[in-house]
Fold:
Amino acid sequence: MKKYLIHTYGCQMNVHESEKIAGILRDEGFEATARETDADIIVFNTCCIRETAEAKIMGHIGQIKKIKKARPELKVAVCGCMSQQEGAAQLILDKFPFVDAVLGTANLHLLKEVVAKADNTSKNRFFNRDFLGDNDNRPVFRTSGTNAWVNIIYGCNNFCTYCIVPYVRGRERSRPAKDIISEVNALLDEGYKEITLLGQNVDSYGNDLKDGSNFASLLGELGKIGGKHRIRFMTSHPKDFNQSVAEVIEKYPSLCHNIHLPVQSGSNSVLKRMNRRYTREQYLELVRTIRTHLPDVGLRHTAEDIEACYALARQEGFTHINADLIAGLPGETEEDFNDTLSLMEEVRFSSAFCFVYSRRKGTPGYSMENQVPREVKTERIKKLIALQNRITKEISKEHEGKVFEILVEDKNEKFENTYCGRTDGGRLVNFKSPTDIVGQFVNVKIKTSRSATLWGDLITEEK
Structure:
């Protein structure tokens, strides 16, 4: 049987698209391999969010030249965000003549033509960057364990000044709600216990459909689905997340109380230059709304004591809000940066992805004046990470002595008879079990914490 190897870079959207690539190839009779030298086709599913990522990918593609020379029948395809940039396809084809095909982000289905026709001749090396379709209703080979990814919206209309995504993913395109609900139902029937809804901005869902659909109504329909499971989503945009979304999450137990809400900066002047279209004050008000409606129901009390559970959760801040933060946007002053630090202290994010600003050609930020020196950006990112590490550790400490419901995701092979899973709020928990319980919901009492990871004891029915 012929073999395939997929190299995946970047976000969860790319991870899921690699599942679609795998589904297409398996449907064509291929099976997976972990060795490049054994592969009959190698696919690079790329990311271009930062120049460092792009340089790494280019280097990796270049390493395939020797393998291709030894085995001319090997097919090599490059797809994903990097290939979607203006002029990037021709650059890849010129720099790497051994590449058989470059595909656009919404044209992965053309991979079937690569398999059938590509023979490293110029007439068969092709590129398509049109948004012809978003690869829905294609075969998918899922590799995310108990979790299944489901796209609900593609593209982005926000045009943040630092971000290349709208230029490589196109304008927002929502899937019909009935298709999403049908896919989620099918996945739950297959035994998946957790569904993660994906989109560059899930809160914009439905704006382009003109049929009254919106993200809150979609969550409401998904929340009505019976059975024991969890539904998560990412990523949210603070300008679009609203009280209606918080209220519907509060209403349905299957909707997780774990919100990824990128803030990027705590300075109003920086937020304006980023074109984020909200202020620090509006973001903080949104956080208060979320924490009013969404205490962490993963914090378990008796049914009779549910109000006490909610009150305690509000008091202790167990609603998990995660963020993205950028240090060093052009023009960011020390005062601007200190505003970000103070916002982190006030909100106390459960976790945060901290990034140094990276110039990207094709974005407004690339030509902005007052670029921040590299050494200043480096010092600032160290401070962001150190502060978030402290807050994360403190929040983890607050979990100790409490009981949480865990969805068991996998076995922790580093420790004997040890399994791991996550709380409703997304905290990773390790605990011992004498039997294999992957895919089950269990209750665990937390004993100790180590940074973002918790350790506890499984509570059995006997206990």
In short: The first strand starts at residue 3 and ends at 8. Residues 297-307, 312-317 have pLDDT under 50 and may be disordered. The two ends are 51 Å apart (CA to CA).
